[in-house]
Amino acid sequence: MLKQKLTLAVTTALALTGAAYAQSARDYISIVGSSTVYPFTTAVAEQFGKSNSSFKTPKVESTGTGGGFKLFCGGVGVQHPDVSNASRKIKKSEIESCAKNGVTDIVEIVIGFDGIVLATSKKSKPMALTLKDIWLALAKEVPEPGTGKLVTNPFKTWQDINPDLPAKKIEVLGPPPTSGTRDAFVELVMDHGCKEFPAVKDLEKADEKQFKKVCQTIREDGVFIEAGENDNLIVQKLAANPNALGIFGFSFLEENLDKIQGETINGVVPNFENIADGKYPVSRPLFIYVKKAHIGVIPGIKEFIAEFTSEKAVGDDGYLSKKGLIPLPAAKRKQAAADANSLKTMTP
Amino acid sequence: MNKPTSAASAPAILNRDIKTIVNAGLKRRHAAETRFRWYGLIAVSLGLLFVVLMFGNIISKGYPAFWQTYIQLPIKFDPAVIDPQGSRDPKTLESADYAALVRAGMRQMFPKVEGRLELRALYGLVSSNAALELQSRVLQNPALIGAEQEIWLLASADVDTLVKGNIDRSLDETERPIKDNQVGWVDKLKAAGKIEKQFNTILFSSGDSREPEMAGIRGALMGSFYTLLVTFLLSFPIGVATAVYLEEFAPKNRWTDIIEVNINNLAAVPSIVFGLLGLAVFINFFGLPRSAPLVGGLVLSLMTLPVIIIAGRAALTSVPPSIREAALGMGASKLQMVGHHVLPLAMPGMLTGSIIGMARALGESAPLLMIGMVAFIVDVPKGLMDPATVLPVQVYLWSDLPERAFVERTSAAIMVLLAFMILMNGLAILLRKRFERRW
């Protein structure tokens, strides 16, 4: 009847628009992925668009690392993104799901480092933390002193953990589990902190699953507060609450040094030099992944890679270092740029 | 003494008792009424207080963003830099190193500054937009080459923040984005009258940027415009037709009841659900592009439809039955009755409902997360298929950036968004006041 005809007409119209779009090639690069890499990729995208008048400025979506790979691995073709930002290395499961959809040749590019800092308000006294202290403060279950048996985390103040620390309440604001920053924090802080206990370390060989659970589970009794993906919000909360400790990327510390201070971890101050040297223990590499099959189909991908790996972007004085990206050491940078520009694909 | 002893005096005593009882209770009742008024007053003032706090906070943070700091520099349009061959070829003019002209101007202002680091800090006072500004001036008027002019150039975001007084000078230099030597130069420029604040046209004329001083909301505004255009074109006709059919033509039976209940429920469905639906249907099934205003408009019209239908039906029911009966009595067909009499009378109410629905769609960001409109897009969209973002999403994206100067721009974008909301709701009130008939 009329209604059915109408539905049919609308459906065909939509399908036709879709098909017409799929046939006409997209003329801009489509980038998805991590919100941590977003500030850097957008800066490169803008620079790329301004300095190459023959290419359009790439579109950069902020979807989170995992969400980005899901889209990136969706398949080959203009409706799928060309580049994915990631604040961690691509997982094996993601490579497999990529391969299942025909995305096999992937170019991995390391763009630099990002430090994860634990910061407090400037009004509070600095604390000298160790990875062990942080793990004890945040793990759901900790070994009982003396027996080494795992018990529900009893610690309420920092002094309970370590007599040298101040007697203030443990209150930590951090990213939610969907965030790449959280993954990196767990991997770099929690995993290392728990290994300082022989009882837990022995578990690694005996029962890896249980070991992971003990090390990585963060307590859920209100001490660790998931403060969302917005790091500016955490900074504001820290400024208002001298007791709280916040976890976020280094660039937010650098922009807000008048309000907050980064705590030393294992005796190392979180600053540009220490992260670049690798002295600061909580830093991670950042990546972009490029779909090789799209090179030559979408205009400008090669040139975009060249811009992203150029000295003026990721070099020691590059514009990304002003945005808070910690550059790779010079030799590694050269290697990364050479690999990227020769489109060396990942070996499975 | 107050115990009645004889039956004869009972009525008198009773009368007196009622009076005392009423009198005794009167005070309490008056007090209760006064208290109740106070509760109401307190509730209203608390509400107002929060509104004032919110607006005060946003406006006080956002209004400085409407002004932007400029630095006046003597610029010599050196032919040796711009066009060494003297060909005046537009390609040569476009690719010339205009940043060198800006640097030369800076050195002319501060001839004593030396050393690579110092010079870098000095050049950092001016935005990278300055070179683009010079480029566009030369391209427009090649006769400028060889001339020397005093030109106002955009200052960098840090200088802007300093001039606006948002950087505490008493802090140690390592804790501020702008160093002591730079503060000194800015103060010198200021003393010489070479720094001034001008109206921030960039905010309204350019798309997104990672440099706060060059970031604008034009891209988001155009994205919002295209998205709402699609939303209106789809949801208004369909919504009105549905409302008319359900109210005037449909038989009242169980099916129409079910449809009505469903429409009412749809109006209350969280908007993110529509986003997921849009992702599954429009993008994955029909293969429409991500981030396109067309898809955004489709999703938002799904969300707005129930609102328009409900408002439309309410407007139709408020038209008195006598109008319908009179039209039918004069021999009009049912379609003529609706088309000539009922619909025109109900239209102001329908439009009001639609505008309020559209205002809600304008402020929506959650469903657009799913369909890729949360993105960094520099080029201002020119059509329904171009990648775009919308105003509330722009607010969200800016609020998440580390640079301090984006704080005021975020608030400025909120102010523009609120202004549009107030405008749309004002239009709805105006329509209602001017055209609605009360019976």
UniProtKB/TrEMBL annotation, chain A:
CDD domains: PBP2_phosphate_like_2. Keywords: Signal. SUPFAM superfamilies: Periplasmic binding protein-like II. InterPro entries: PBP_domain (IPR024370), Phosphate_ABC_transporter (IPR050811). Residues 23-311 form the PBP domain. Residues 1-22 form the signal peptide. It comes from the Bacteria. Pfam families: PBP_like_2. This is Phosphate ABC transporter substrate-binding protein, PhoT family. It comes from Candidatus Contendobacter odensis Run_B_J11.
Automatic annotation (TrEMBL), chain B:
One of its GO terms (molecular function) is phosphate transmembrane transporter activity. It comes from the Bacteria. PROSITE patterns: ABC_TM1. InterPro entries: DUF3333, MetI-like, MetI-like_sf, Phosphate_PstA. CDD domains: TM_PBP2. Its main location: membrane. One of its GO terms (cellular component) is plasma membrane. It is a multi-pass membrane protein. It is found in: Cell inner membrane; Cell membrane. The keyword Coiled coil does not apply. Residues 221-428 form the ABC transmembrane type-1 domain. The chain crosses the membrane at residues 38-59, 225-246, 266-287, 294-315, 335-356, 411-431. Keywords: Cell membrane, Membrane, Transmembrane, Transmembrane helix, Transport. Pfam families: BPD_transp_1 (PF00528), DUF3333 (PF11812). One of its GO terms (biological process) is phosphate ion transmembrane transport. Belongs to the binding-protein-dependent transport system permease family. CysTW subfamily. This is Phosphate transport system permease protein PstA. It comes from Candidatus Contendobacter odensis Run_B_J11.
